[in-house]
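Consider this today:
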Amino acid sequence: MAPFQGLRSSQPDLHEKLRQDPILETYSIYGFFPELYRRIYVDGAQPPMTMAGRGRGRVAMLEFEDRGLVVKPLQSCREGEVAAIGAEMGAGPMQYASLEGYLTEERVAGAFFTEMAPEDICDDSMYRAGAALGGILARLHRRRVYYNDATLSDPAGRSHLIIEPGGGCRLIDFGVSVLLDRHPVLERQDVYNFVRTLPMYRVLKRMGLKAHEMDRFLEEYAGKLARTSPEEIMSQDLRFAEEGLKMAAGRMGGRIVEPLASGFRDAYGS
């Protein structure tokens, strides 16, 4: 009820009605999101809901009979645009009508790349995964989208590439992506999205950089990005993929490297 406490004095009748709503007690504000409202309040669905999330805020995951849906706060003002581009080209989750400040999207079924069952790891599946990732990045780059976190695996084994049932692949989470359609003019938030995946930024953050020092750092980096071509910026996605492949090989075995890299090269270059 926390989001509605202001109604307690201004509209007590409405506040009392909300307080007595059993659906609100179960689903909190998420039942009011357009795609969820119809299913929960109109159709009477009662999906299991779990909450997750770290730095980006709380993420609600609801499992309906026909599909899973995710509601999560935007990380940047243009994340919705980028996520819509990804959905349009089949590179990311389908997007649904949402409320301001949030995304409502499909929960992509499947396993993260690093969670593939050992019996499913073979030259053919690795080639297809590499080709899928290469094709996705090629399509995003043609639309001037720098994904900025094409992670097959990070040091903790997390991945952004989901292997779907049947062998398809999609990327999730466009929260740090940068849309370069206005380059060389970049918003501060675009610059922040770019630098937050840099090792240098993580070092500076651990050092406890003050707000004015971070502002100066971002201003300097904005100038650097303005002088860098979109193609060079987007090429960093290839570095992420290469680094992630090395980390994944450490967990899944070196045999994944050659077929996956081969599939990636064939798809990205085509």
Observations:
- The CA atoms of residues 74 and 168 lie 26 Å apart.
- The two ends are 53 Å apart (CA to CA).
- Residues 2-107 form a domain with the Phosphorylase Kinase; domain 1 fold (CATH 3.30.200).
- The chain has two domains: 2-107, 111-184+227-268.
